[in-house]
């Protein structure tokens, strides 16, 4: 079972948006599962087989497990079938925390993934259902940002990922079909590093990742706030 489930529309979304936190939690002993809703194919330089090899290597670098649900790339849509597919994962894994994409983006798949994750969290708790597994409701849902738009949004909280920033970037390097082989995306890893450094400047640390939530996060003590 997983302590944390990180949902992405495509392989590499989780690594871009929250690879640092995923690596940190895995280092701390948490079981972290990455769930890719699609395989992101077709793409100009990829194949399904190549994408799976890249995604497996990336997850291994972060210390996470990974599954791909096989929903339709480019046609990803919120609906009962997609909700149930993800909800059954949540019922099987029984995480306390779900991470999902930020809901505002230029990429329709990312926006759909955000809606699917939120709905699947609700679906997972349903009784009198034909879904596999026992009902389960993850206590918290947080959103990470891996968007095509250059958005400026105030996060609900920032997480210091200074120690694991090199690991986050290393986890992106296996995606050669996405980055190094595609001239349009050749500088994206550098952009990810600059973005982490930007959030780090705001947090007064070397590097950080932003997170967003509808429900306010809770801490046991004010001293837990850095």
Break the fold down into its secondary structure elements and pairings.
Layout: E1 4-8, H1 13-27, E2 32-36, H2 48-62, E3 65-68, H3 80-93, E4 97-101, H4 108-123, E5 140-144, E6 157-160, H5 165-172, H6 188-203, E7 208-212
Parallel strand pairs: 1-2, 1-4, 2-3, 4-5
Antiparallel strand pairs: 5-7, 6-7
Structure description:
By secondary structure, this protein is an alpha/beta fold. The chain has a single domain, classed as LmbE-like (Rossmann fold), CATH 3.40.50. 37% of the residues lie in helices and 15% in strands. The protein has helices at residues 13-27, 48-62, 80-93, 108-123, 165-172, 188-203; strands at residues 4-8, 32-36, 65-68, 97-101, 140-144, 157-160, 208-212. A seven-stranded mixed β-sheet has the order 3-2-1-4-5-7-6, with helices on both faces. α1 links the parallel β1 (4-8) and β2 (32-36). The longest helix is centred in the middle third of the chain and has 16 residues, at 108-123. The chain is globular. The two termini are 30 Å apart. The mean pLDDT is 95.
Can you give the mean pLDDT?
95
- The helicity comes to 25-40%
- Supply the number of structural domains: 1
Radius of gyration (CA) equals 17 Å
Which terms would index this structure?
single chain; 226 residues; alpha/beta; Rossmann fold; seven-stranded mixed sheet; 7 strands; 37% helix; globular
Short description:
The chain has helices at about 15-25, 50-60, 80-95, 110-125, 165-170, 190-205; strands spanning about 5-10, 30-35, 65-70, 95-100, 140-145, 155-160, 210. By secondary structure, it is an alpha/beta fold.
